[in-house]
Amino acid sequence: MPQLNPNPWFLILSSTWLIYTLILQPNIASYLSMNYPTKKNKTTNTNPWAWPWT
User: Fold this and answer.
1) Rounded CA gap, 29 and 21, in Å?
2) Is 3 in contact with 9 (CB distance < 8 Å)?
3) What burial letters (b/e) apply to 8-28, b meaning 16+ CB within 10 Å?
4) Which one in 5, 9, 32, 44 has a CA-CA gap of 20 to 30 Å to 53?
5) CA-wise closest residue to 8 among 50, 16, 46, 21
6) Which compartment or compartments is the protein found in (predicted)?
7) 1-54 pLDDT, tens digit each
């Protein structure tokens, strides 16, 4: 079973993560989000519902 031999697979795994962390991650993180979360200062007044059977 080739999955048990770490020689070729560990090199592929480590090189993939190295490429991801050094090259792709800063490029992806540089994109700005167009929808920034805004803090709403609106307070809602919650009144209890007048149920007809109570």
Assistant:
1) 11
2) yes
3) eeeeeeeeeeeeeeeeeeeee
4) 44
5) 16
6) Mitochondrion membrane
7) 456 777 778 888 899 999 888 887 777 777 766 667 777 777 777 788 888 876
